[in-house]
Amino acid sequence: MDSKPAGADEQARAQERSNVGKRRLLGIDWGTSNRRAYLVDGGGACLASRADDQGLLAARPHFGASLAALLAAMDIAPGVPVVASGMVGSAQGWRQTPYLDIGVPLLELPAHLTRVDEADENDDLGGRSVLLVPGYSQHERGADGHVRIDVMRGEEMQLLGALMLRTHGGDGSNGDGWYVLPGTHSKWVRLEGGAIRHIATFMTGELFATLGKQGTLAPLMEGAAGEESPESDAAFDAGVDEARRRAPLSNALFGVRARVVTGAMPAAHTRAFVSGLLIGAELVAALDLAGHDPGTVTSVCTPALHRHYARAAGRLGVTLQALDPDRVYRAALGFFLRHIDPTYQRSQP
């Protein structure tokens, strides 16, 4: 019976760690309007990055050519694998990737990638394939029999990265808890045991942008001060307090105009008040779903957005802790690099 030399297993593991550390991966957060690319090593360290306006709308239908231009601009070597997430995997994107059920653990994402080969696209992708990350869907039946349906595409990378950072952060966390991912469509997600247990999406960012561009509130919001000040903070707080009173949102929004035309609120405070009202309404509804005691909620967003959400949450008795979205995304890419087949990028004959 053959026996391995003493220490052979440890040497093999050390060699594998060394090999992973030397490998590279290009991750692309490919959204509707914008695209961000990160070249990372096995530890998730960013070696290069690039952002442009070649989102789904601009790149369609020539996704392969658009990616080839990005690879050339970043001087990405032919052997570097590419993983893309976001709306590029939607029905309107490069190739539709089926949604995973929320019961599929986040750590299993590398086993569910959709492959696009160079031969399919007739573009110079350096002999590689591109792997598209799937999103998640929820069909949850409540105690009242109502089925709550929701989806996410792109946010799964933020959740995976957040899970990596929290479970390897040295504080003993298992990553369980509530997460908020603010943006155009804000996501509230409950993680348990490394899997998604609940998704709730709020069109907070889209509503704020739409109200500021068209409709009866638009002139007031356009003329309102956008910079932060004690006065704007107070107006924001007043909006959160209005949301806490649980008035129907459409009624509360008309009340903004009524406040201005009657002189109850300066027009300059409109933008901050509406922001507080919308974020407050989102938080009130999310806390209803969470059972009013979500513990510390983890936010993954820009510092500016976190400031607003943390301020509103504080008025409702909830604490938010922040994770940097770039760091979170790089952590997810590092996980992919360690767990995908290193030979996958070779196009099949």
TrEMBL record:
Keyword Transferase part of the UniProt annotation: yes
Record-linked Pfam families: DGOK
GO biological process terms on file: D-galactonate catabolic process
What GO annotations for molecular function exist for this entry? 2-dehydro-3-deoxygalactonokinase activity
Q: Which keywords does this Swiss-Prot/TrEMBL entry list?
A: Kinase, Transferase
The answer to keyword Transcription applying to this record is: no
What is the protein's name according to its record? 2-dehydro-3-deoxygalactonokinase
